[in-house]
Structures are given as C-alpha cells and as structure tokens.
Amino acid sequence: MKFYKRQNIVFIFIASFFIFLLMDVCLGPNFCWADIFNVFNDAGIPHQSVLWTWQGGAGSFNTISDQEAPERVSCIQTISGNWAGWGIFFDVQDGGQPCPLNFSNYSQGQLRFFVKTPVNLKVELKETGPNGPVRTRYIANYGWNGLNEWQEITIPISAFNANLTQIYSPFMITAECAATFYVDYVRWEIPISGYTPTQVAVNGRQLLVNGSAFTVRGVSAEFTPVGEIGSGYDWSLYPENYTPDMPLIDSMRANVVRTYHKRPTQRAFLDSLNQQGIYLIMGFPVDAVYGQNQIVDFGNPVVRQNIKRCFLDMVGHWKNHPAILMWCLGNEVNRILEDNGVSPNDWYSLVDECAEEAHLLEGANYHPVTTANADQEVWDIGDPTINADDVSLPHLDLWSLQLYRGESFGDTFSDYQTLSNKPLLISEFGCDVYDGRSGQENQPMQLSYLTSQWTEISANLSTNFTPGVCIGGIMFSWRDGWWKSSHGTPSSHDTETDWLNPAYDDMNMNEEWWGVVAISQNQQDRTIRQGYNLWLIPAINITYPHEGGTVNTFAPTITWQTTNIEPNESLRIVIGHPNYTRPISCNFSVKNVLLALANFFDIESAYADSRMVALWSEDLNVVVPNTGSYTVPQGIRPILYPNVTHTLTISKVTEPNVRSVVHFRVSTDVNRFNRAELMGNVRFKEINKLKTDNTKLEPLRKLPTSK
To answer: C-alpha 159: how far from its chain's center?
Structure first.
C-alpha cells in the first residue's frame, strides 16, 4: 500500500522558487480549456495544487537545475532506494479538500513529458479524489528506448480510459524498484486545427502581410493581474485577464502584441487577437543562466538540440493560427552572455539553426524568425567574428533591438544600415510613468518620450521610403507589472528605483510603472494614461532626411487613390527639417479636394525650438519661423471622396538646398483610425550638403489629439 506524504523539502523549494499559476476554486466557468495545460515546467506547478511524494524505503526528491535537461532551469530528480514516486494533485488549499477538474476537452489530446531513467516508469492519472480510481500506463509502451538519457514520452489521453470530467491528479509517476530518474516539462496538449495562417514574408527591408507592406505598431503585453508573477503565471487560462484589453488595444491603433516569459497556451487568446485584427509576436524564452548563476553553454550539442526541439514544438503547434505574425527567439541573450564575458557566437549559430528548421517545418509560407538584442556598447549585429553578420545568419529573417536611449535613438538607424541588409524591428522602446524626482506619476513625461521615440522610428520606416531600415516598433509596455520589482510583492505597486538610466531626465527606472494603461486590485479596472494616445494623435510624424547622396531634381507630384476611404477624412501634410535653422517657405496646391473649416487642431508651444513646421491649406503660402510658436487659424479639414484620385502638387520650394521631407497620410477618423490607411512621401535632399554642428537637437513632437 502506498504511503502518501507531502515532501516538505521539495514543496518548500517549489513554493519559494517557482511561480504559481492562478486557479479559481475548482476552476470555475471562467477557466479557458483547450490546447496546453502545463502540469510541471520551469514555471512550477499550478496554483491551488500540491506536489505529493511516496516511497517504500530510503529515497529523496530534489528540484535541480541542469543545462542538459529539456528546460534547463529545473527538473525533478527522484532517488529511490526501493520504490518511489511523486504526483500533482488539485487541492483547494495546502492540505485542503480535493478539487477534481474537467479535462474532457483533452479527450483527443496527449500527455507529454520528458524523462531520463534506467527503468520502466509507471504513469498514472487519478480520478475524483484521494480514494478515486487510478488509471495506469508504462512508458515502455510509449516509446521509451530503455536508455538512461533524456527523451520525450507521448501518451494519448484516450489510452488511460479515464473519466476526464473528474481528474484529481493529472500526472503521477513512480519507479517500482531502486533507481534514480528525472522528469521535466509535463503537460496536457491537444493540437489545434481549422485555421488558415496569415501570409507573412520579408521582402528586402519590408515586412509584408498578405502581400502588403506592414508597419508594426506594437505593445509588449503579458496580462498578469495584481498578485501574480508574470514569468510563470499562465494568464491565458483566464479570459477575464485579457478580454477587457482587446478593444482598448485595437482603439489605440496598435496592430501587434508581443509576449515574453510565459507564452500563451490557449487558442482563445489568439482568437481574441484575430477578431480585433491584431497580430502576435510569440516569444520563445531562452534562459542563458541556470543553477547557481552558471551560464548556459550554447555550444553543447545536447543544449542546442533541446532548445531547437522545444522551439519547433511551439512553432508546430501555433503555425497555422492567423494571429501569428512572427517568432521571437530569446530576449537580450546577448546582454547576459557578454555581461558575463562569454562570446555569443554559439548563441547566434543556434539562432540561425532554429530559424532554418522552423522554415522547413512550416514550408514555403513560413513566418519570420527574429531575436531581440539588447542595446549595448556593442550590438553584435554585423560582426562576422561572432556569427552575427548576414552571411553567418542566412535564415534569420530580421533583427530586433531593444532601445532605451531617452528621447532620441541617436545614430541607431544610420549605423544599422551599414551593418545588415535585414529589416530592423525596435522590439522595445518607452519610458516609465513614475517620476522618481517628484515621487508621483508624470504622464506628460511618458507621452513626450514615447512621441519622440516613435517620431524617429517613423522617420526610418521602410514602408514609407526606400532607404528606411525599420518595420516599426513595440511600445514597452501595455500594462503595469506589479510583480516586476525585487523590492516589493506582486500585490503592491512598488516605487523604489530598480536601475538607473542617465539617458532619461528622470534617471530612476521603475520596473512596475512602464504601462500606458494602469491596473488595480480590481482585476477589471483599466485606467488609460496619456501615453495611450501615441498613435491616436491625428498628425503625421516628421520624417527625418537621411545623410548621403545628392538629388538635383525631385518629383513634384504625389498621387494616391482613396479607395475604401470614407468621407470626412483628415489629411495633413507636415514639412520639417531637424538640422536647418532658417525658415522654410513652401506653397502647396491641392487639387480635387473640397475644403471645410473646422476646429481641428492647434500646434503646441512644444514646437518652439529649432524646428520649422508648415501645415497646408489650399493655395496657402506658409512661412514658419525658427522661434516662437505657430497656431493654425481654426484648422483645415478636407473632405475626400472615395474612388477619386486626389493630387497634391508641390508648386514651389523657395529654399531649394534644404533637405526636407514631405510626408503625408490619409486615414479615417480617430475612432476608425486603423480601418484604412495610405501613406507616402516625397523627399528633398540637399544639393550641397549642409554643414551642421554637433549640438544635440530635441526631436520633433507630434501634434496634440484633435478636439
């Protein structure tokens, strides 16, 4: 007869080391089933569950970290002197009442896990409660090769003949003799079907979605409620965690969400994105550290194979879902390696191998693969000595870069242009909203930084003009993360400084305060901050000119079709030059456009720096001085009609040597802003290159939200 015992040493370690997943009592109607349920992995075991052990003699149970284990960070080692095993049980509380769960949606699914064992192991499911029926199978019948090496076991759920509506233990495993065995990454999984993938491709420096150039306006998001820890909590199990966010993300004109530590496990989340026309950059976390701050050896063949196998498992599961935009392999792995004096050359060669095999798995219409590098003194990008150049990475589709340089990214884009021919995604940019100088929120500060940063991203978009290297950016972040600071608890909104960044006026970086949306103890509350308006402001960003080359002539006409654009659209042309200190005089003539006066917009005094901004109206000659402010007299709202060709003619440029850009956007009203959009530009480059000093210039800011 088995003796059930709570293994304190294991449980205490798990309770302190692992991050628990949220479950309502008995997982009520808000629980979202289908796809993947993680029983044990690097994130730990489900909250409101316990790990129990049993043994028939001397034995021990340990959570250990082994870089050659499938997930590296932790696995469970069992040392049996006679017979021993362990399992996960759904109890409402520690030692509480049994709470069997309904797994009936997994009837056509699989129980999958990794083992390293010299003996045949018994695997069981338990129904109802402590005295309920037990369903038993042995790994020798499901692919175990008899060798003491890591291998994956897959058992069809149907093989257990269990009552799936009353599962009390989703996994028990036992060695029935003296042995030492290891278990890692246990989950229930059901394949998804019935979807048609979105067509995503890279063409030169552009990202194409369903054949059209696509600009990423993304938010980084893990929908972790107050009281939970994001790196382990499976927020996708509970629709109430993300359902209130979906219309808000859509309304702010974001079109991409990026996930990190805990990739979503439920198709319902991806379905909700797809319903809003939002795409997902699904992150695949790669830990570069294991054990006692040991660095993972990415040159180790076993490590490489494990990472590729788990990455391809993720790709294979989700590849056909239409919400998938691309895969992001790792996050700032280069920083961890280089901070510890380790060359990233093996990491980059592994990235390319993963990308190559993902392409083969998906076939001709594969999704792009990227990796997100930290912005450091040396990016690595383009360095052939560490396998980080285009020749060494033929299968990596694009680079992603996290940038926290304050208001301006400096020479990032011009430098990158010489280092790689791949597109560049700014995979993180932003500013925390908590001002450590005043000890309170500073929403205008956050919006100001976001605006300046997006202005430079927009200026270098490959969707706008040929020299552009960038496909867009991911704002960090969508919501505050109350769990992120080491100074407090997941239930408190900590305000202590987590790190310093002198590139910001307030150099106190507060990890829990980066959201453009605030959350509270009430899980349904969402409070929008000013930074939310970044893409809602109906103004076009100044497109900065690029160095190099001279152009003696320029195209005088921009022509665009307004097909699918509804009446009462807003059109604005902005011309400016960041390094030119004299006024610019331009005459704009607009043809086939019916103009109507409206209280549309003003220009804030934020433009009263060394910038020139001209706004157009029909046959209006505008000269904007380089000092002071300029207010548009009651604004202009053109009414554009569908299926008509509207032509904007640049009839006169009084300063022909000025490097400038005319950049335009035709779009719907703010509340329908993402429904139809056409963009274009004409660039004017200097004939004789302007001489500028090294004085730092403040970036141009966007126009304010329309009234």
So the answer is: 38
pLDDT band, residue 690 (cuts 50/70/90): very low
| Per-residue tokens: 587 | 């005459």
Q: From CA 609, how far away is CA 643, in angstroms rounded?
A: 40
Range in 71-75, 324-328, 388-392 with the lowest mean pLDDT: 71-75
Q: Confirm if 113 and 187 have CB atoms less than 8 A apart.
A: yes
Where do we find the tokens 């003799």?
A: 177
The whole-angstrom separation of Cα 233 and Cα 236 is: 9
Burial of 473 (0-12, 13-18, 19+ CB in 10 A): buried
Give the Cα separation of 25 and 100 in Å (integer).
10
Looking at residue 168, its pLDDT comes to 96
Going 474 to 478 to 480 to 483, the CA torsion angle's sign is negative
Q: What is the pLDDT of residues 370-384, one digit of tens each?
A: 999 999 766 899 999
Query: With b meaning 16 or more CB within 10 Å and e meaning fewer, what string describes 87-118?
Result: bbbbbeeeeeebbbbebeebeebbbbbbbbbe
Of 535, 610, 543, nearest to 573 (Cα)? 543
Helices 301-318, 345-362: axis angle to 10 degrees equals 30
pLDDT tens-digit readout, 543-582: 323 222 222 222 223 333 333 323 333 333 333 333 333 3
